[in-house]
């Protein structure tokens, strides 16, 4: 491997439990960038959730948002691609899931992640940390409006049921035409068919003319599995689920123990 690109998840991976970039991690990322290595955040977050930490992490290039559905440049705002979930598919899966589980609430991420369309009642059970948006700014609309347009990511949650229960219920329906995953956030996330962090990363690497064997990827959640398998070297965080660790080539220390930095330092040969 000739390391040319570092792809890293954020929450639970690069960031500490306090959602901060440690001094050691920032130094490791800077050392990589100084050698011309691309450092790319690959996250379920939207650009709004990246801007709050971009300066702390030194992110000044491409980013992959919505679990690989959207690629944007954090400095000049260029969009490389946006893969949206069709409205017809959204309505079909929402109707089927609602028939199985009463009380669900939905939100749609649109327009490059800048627009968040939430159903009435969604903001009341949301926290700032969920979407890096103040729930007071989310408003609330009728469900028909949430489901009426294509979406980079459809968010599904329940006031009482865990996201894993929603994921299992959706899988049990046997529907097709979309990708569903979990990121560790308190909701189920649904993207366009075939869209994962791996597919988004592959498209970005093609644009940058970087081979997958020259990519190292870090992650901790179910939505990172495909990316860890795709990369030339996949690294899971300590404490990640078995499926995540099984997908990786190695497991490093936890996000609170500078796990990402330790691997980068080793690969670069720096202390």
From TrEMBL:
Which branch of life, at top level? Bacteria
Q: What is this protein called?
A: Cof subfamily protein (Haloacid dehalogenase superfamily)
Which Pfam family, just one, is annotated for this protein? Hydrolase_3
SUPFAM superfamilies per record? HAD-like
């Amino acid at each position: 491997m000739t390391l040319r690109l570092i792809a890293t998840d954020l929450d639970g991976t690069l960031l500490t439990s306090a959602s901060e970039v440690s001094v050691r991690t920032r130094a490791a990322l800077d050392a990589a960038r100084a050698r011309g290595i691309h450092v790319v955040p690959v996250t379920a977050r939207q650009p709004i959730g990246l801007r709050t930490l971009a300066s702390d992490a030194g992110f000044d290039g491409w980013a992959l948002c919505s679990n690989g559905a959207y690629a944007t440049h954090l400095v000049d705002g260029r969009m490389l691609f946006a893969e949206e979930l069709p409205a017809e598919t959204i309505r079909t899966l929402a109707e089927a899931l609602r028939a199985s589980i009463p009380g669900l609430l939905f939100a749609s991420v649109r327009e490059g992640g800048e627009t968040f369309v939430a159903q009435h009642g969604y903001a009341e059970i949301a926290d700032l940390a969920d979407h890096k948006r103040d729930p007071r700014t989310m408003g609330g609309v009728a469900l028909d409006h949430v489901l009426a347009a294509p979406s980079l990511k459809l968010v599904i949650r329940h006031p009482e049921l865990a996201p894993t229960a929603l994921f299992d219920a959706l899988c049990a329906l046997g529907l097709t035409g979309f990708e569903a995953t979990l990121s560790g956030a308190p909701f189920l996330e649904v993207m366009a068919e075939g869209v994962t962090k791996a597919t988004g990363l592959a498209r970005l690497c093609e644009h940058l003319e970087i081979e997958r064997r020259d990519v190292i990827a870090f992650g901790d959640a179910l939505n990172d599995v495909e990316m860890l398998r795709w990369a030339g070297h996949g690294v899971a965080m300590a404490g990640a689920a078995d499926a995540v660790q099984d997908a990786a080539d190695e497991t490093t220390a936890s996000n609170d123990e500078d796990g990402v930095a330790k691997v980068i330092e080793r690969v670069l040969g720096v202390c």
